[in-house]
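tool_log.txt
---
The assistant was asked to compare two proteins side by side. It first ran the structure predictor on the initial sequence, then on the second. Raw inputs and outputs are pasted verbatim so the downstream comparison step can read them without reformatting.
(1)
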Amino acid sequence: MLPVYKAISFQKVIEKGGHTKPWVVIVDASGTLKPFVVKLFETYYIENNDCVANEMLGNVLSKEFGLPAPNAALIDLDSDFRSTLRNFNLLERIENTDDRLKFGTELLESVLPFEVAAYDSGQARALLDIDSIFAFDNLIRNRDRTRQPPNILISNNAPYLIDHEMGFDITNFTFNELSDSRWDNKYYRNHIFFNYLKNSWPSTKNEYFNEFEEYLRLLNPAVLDSYFLQLSKHGFSTGKHPIIKDYLTKMHQNSAKFVNLMRGIIQ
């Protein structure tokens, strides 16, 4: 499960933080004060998109695949915290925000977004496992890691994956795409690393996805059970939980076929 921290004070709004414009707040992290970036979703968006669950599961699974992601927590912006707000715009924003716990990640220092123009393919591969990130985003059906936004932050020369709210676009029929050896191109055509991978030398392509395949082969979908339970405990919808777990189980059982599909996509 993710830790649950209570927000103590407001720091700032991240104006360049996409459509959600997250807040930086100071939280009590088991007796230590730490800054966290917190997303403020409206209720209708949570109910229609499961975005809190998507953020949580994306963060957890990225680490299961050996991919870098900031430390995450569920943040309580309770009445004590709200009483510290004096700015009308902040008060209005919090009033329009869903009352349940918020998804947050520990604030990274000195961050820059990953920019394709700043790296050739060799430099990108040296910094990131571009093939694993590409396969991971396709696995969780995340179409939101594009040039704009990249949703990859570089902090002190280390990369971090963020923003999985649009992931897990999964139904009972999603696995049929793999069974039929096809894949919806909206999950890969505009991916930030698609052109890097497709334009790589054939000898380099032969090395792609090997590590990812091993992680998927070893994945135990039951690792998500405690997070599903936590989401349920805090009042979030559980309707997609069995669908996601069943899908990941099937993908785990067919890891080689999925990786072969990814290899075909970048040929």
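(2)
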Amino acid sequence: MNFSIVIPLYNKSYSIKRCIDSVLSQTHKKFEIIVVNDGSSDDSLSVVENSYPIEINKKLIKIIDQNNQGVSIARNNGIAASQSNYICFLDADDEWEPSFLEKMAALIIDFPNADTYSLAHMVKKEGIGLIKPKHGLTDGYRGYVKDFFKASSRGSVVKSSKVCVKKQALLIFGGFPEGVVAGEDLYVWIRLALNGKVACDMSFSVIVHQEEDQSRYSRKNSVPYPFTFLSKNKYVKKNKSLNKYLFVIFYKHFLSSLSNFKLKEASFRLYYYLRMYL
């Protein structure tokens, strides 16, 4: 089974080698790496070019260099350049355990009717170490997810660095929403789950790093995109699990705004949340 791994890159010179090394160390060797440099202003691109000349020459690593256009366009351009029907996404500051692709391939073989596949992750915070986050499924669960939105209301089921999706399932609705800088990934997981099945293997195979850098401050849109999309398109159906999941997303973002005394931002989020149901 072949995989295309799309890595959007923006000002991650300090972590991109760690990220790519974790892919090259996989026990499952049938893959290509597509690094999409989204106009980095640091030396991220040169780190990749200087560290992997052999892999680049063999086209094991493909590089797309574009002006800064945002993570959605970066991912979509990576998808467009991919050769496989199975697309994995990996953020440039995260890493995989060596068995990630092996476990993913086995999950796809055993549960072929899904469009979305996901493994479990740990979080590594600066100065703290590894932390086990709250997941929406029990440890060791493996199989189709009966109710994706209900499970996601309890904790993480799908996240960009631990997911694999069928390319055609993404292309049905156009992939990641371009021009969006907040909640673009949540929108994609929602659309995939509404259109098809999700299968998970809740064994820990991903390390998500939480580090402060300037790229985190570039997300100026404070309203998660699912709210603006659903409010404009009236896509919300009589789906109690989806509604609960949307409320959890809203509640977390709303409290974050209030705790930081951003009252205008909080009211903006409340407005778009209510618009979905008006």
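---
observation on (2): Residues 213-221 have pLDDT under 50 and may be disordered. The CA atoms of residues 247 and 273 lie 8 Å apart.
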